[in-house]
Every structure is written in structure tokens, then in C-alpha cells.
Amino acid sequence: MTLYVSDLDGTLLDPQAQLSASTRAGLARMLDEGLCFTVASARHVSSIARILGDLPLRLPVISSNGAYISDMASGRHELVHSIEPALAQELFGLIRRQGSLPFFSTHGALGDQLFYQAAENEGQQRFIDERLRNADPRLRHSARLQDELGDPVVTFVVVDREPVLLALQAEIEALCGEQVETHVAEDLYLPGWPWLTVHDRRATKDQAIQTLAQRYGLDAREVVVFGDHVNDIKMMRAAHRGIAVANAISEVKQLAHQVIGPHHSDSVLQFIAAEWQENAGRGRGKP
Predict the structure, then answer these.
(1) Residue 54 burial (CB < 10 Å; 0-12/13-18/19+)?
(2) Domain covering 2-80+204-282 in this structure, CATH number
(3) Residue 4 pLDDT > 80, yes or no?
(4) How many CB atoms lie within 10 A of CB 94?
(5) Can you tell me the distance from the alpha carbon of 251 to that of 287, in angstroms, rounded to the nearest whole number?
(6) Is CATH 3.30.1240.10 the right assignment for the domain spanning 85-200?
(7) pLDDT tens digit sequence for 94-103
(8) Residue 141 pairs with which residues in a beta bridge?
(9) Residue 1 has what pLDDT?
(10) What is the mean pLDDT of the chain?
(11) Distance from the CA of 268 to the CA of which of 7, 52, 90, 218 falls in 20 to 30 A?
(12) What pTM was estimated for this model as a whole?
């Protein structure tokens, strides 16, 4: 028996950041038959729910790169990994001293919130506009970001040109060492304006998959993951089998046990469906 875990953007979703009708129908059919499947994404669970909609997932989803394990239907978090408060303050100060204006998400008594102050470039404006367009329930404008650091910070996001982000990433890693997890990744929908994301060190997809498997009695299952980008590298290394889509970055392809078709051709669905059909006569277990 196998636990399948797929990244979303650039992997399971099409170039319009949607789940194609054929992938939706195919996954829904196999899930109803007992397929053990979930997703691990940089997106927040509210965004995952908007895209996946009524897909009948029996397992929770891994969101914000492993910072959350969440029930998709209710949005309730089963696990939250936030950055240690004093360290979050230091990180905010460092980002501001380097001349960047971050976005950051928090989790506290008022639930999940995503704060922004202003847009200083095209990439930041798109970040805000997309969340306004999709009615992100977390989005909050603040006149002074430093006033919003009372609740635990889950994620910092800085959107800028790559040289700026790489320099900032180096400064953060020098300050924090292994206390945080950082990624610089291209925005698939607005090339040229990559994101630097900063999470707690525990917030990685591989650690979240391991925790989910332990909590749901899936430890004995083979783990097969699908990915395309830098935030998928650790789960590719940790899985029994890592499957890269054809549009994946070279490092992901090099780590993969197999490279399948691109994300715009239902490649993840086709891979899972072929294995599901092959194993049809061997018995199917449900999570």
C-alpha cells in the first residue's frame, strides 16, 4: 500500500493554477475507492480548499510548506509550527534593515492573519492583488507592521529581484543558522519576481509527511511524492520514491526516481491511476 503526496503549483495544478477537470474526476474516483492521497503545498489551507473544492480527501493537507497540518474542509489546524517569538522579532528587524518590506502570517487567538503594509514593486503588488481577488480571509493591511508581531509568526515572505533575495537569505542564515528554513523560488505566475520564504526549522514538507503518517497509522506505507521546485527537495530525498514532473527544476529532476510528463498534461493523475490499476487485484486499504 502506498501514501501518495503531491505538491500543487507546477505539479498537480495546471498553468492557470487550477485542478483540471480530468485530474479532479480521476482523483475523486480513486479516493472514493480508497486511494491514500493528500497534498503538500506552500499555499495556506484556505487557498488549497478554494482550488481543490469538493475533492474527497480523507487525510489532512500539509500547507505553508509544512508549517501546518490542516483539515481542508474545516480549515482547522492539527499542527502549527511557528517561529520562536524573539527570533521573529530579530528576523523582522533584519529584513527591514536590509531595506525590504515583508509580508508575514501569524497564528493566534484571532486565527490566521496575513499582514502587509504597502507594495514597493510589481511582484509585491501582484501578491496583494491575488489575495484580494481570491478574498483571502487572512489578509490584513497595517500602517505599522512591527505592531502586528504579538501573535506567533508562521511565515515571512519577501518579494523582490533574485540578487536582493539571495543576499537577504544569506544574512538570515548567518543570523539564524539552523533555526529557520528558507527558500528562494520563482513565482511561477510572474517570472522575474521570486519569493524568499522563511519558516521555523520544523516547517518542511518531509517532516510534515512523517508526522502525518505517524498520526494516521500510515508508517508502514510506501511514500511516493510528486514535486517540481526547491521546497520539494527535502521530501524528494525522504520519500521511498520521488517523482518529478518534466517542468521541474534540474535539482529536483536529479533527485527523482522517475521523471514524468509536465504539469499541464495531468501527469500526476496518469502516474497514480496506472499504479492504482496495476494494484487493483492486490487489495486496497483505506487510511
Answers:
(1) exposed
(2) 3.40.50.1000
(3) yes
(4) 17
(5) 32
(6) yes
(7) 999 999 999 9
(8) 116
(9) 87
(10) 95
(11) 218
(12) 0.94
Tens digit of each residue's pLDDT (9 = 90 or more) over 190-228: 999 999 999 999 999 999 999 999 999 999 999 999 999
The three state secondary structure string of the chain is CEEEEECHHHHHCCCCCCCCHHHHHHHHHHHHCCCCEEEECCCCHHHHHHHHCCCCCCCCEEEHHHCEEECCCCCCEEEECCCCHHHHHHHHHHHHHCCCCCEEEEEECCEEEEEECCCCCHHHHHHHHHHHHCCCCCEEECCCHHHHCCCCEEEEEEECCHHHHHHHHHHHHHHHHHHEEEEEECCCCCCCCCEEEEEECCCCHHHHHHHHHHHCCCCCCEEEEEECCHHHHHHHHHCCEEEECCCCCHHHHHHCCEECCCHHHCHHHHHHHHHHHHCHHHCCCCC
Judge contact between 269 and 27, C-beta under 8 A. Answer: yes
Looking up cell 505539479 gives 11
Beta-carbon contacts of residue 74 (< 8 Å; ≥ 6 apart)? none
**Ranges of CATH 3.40.50.1000 domains, the chain:** 2-80+204-282
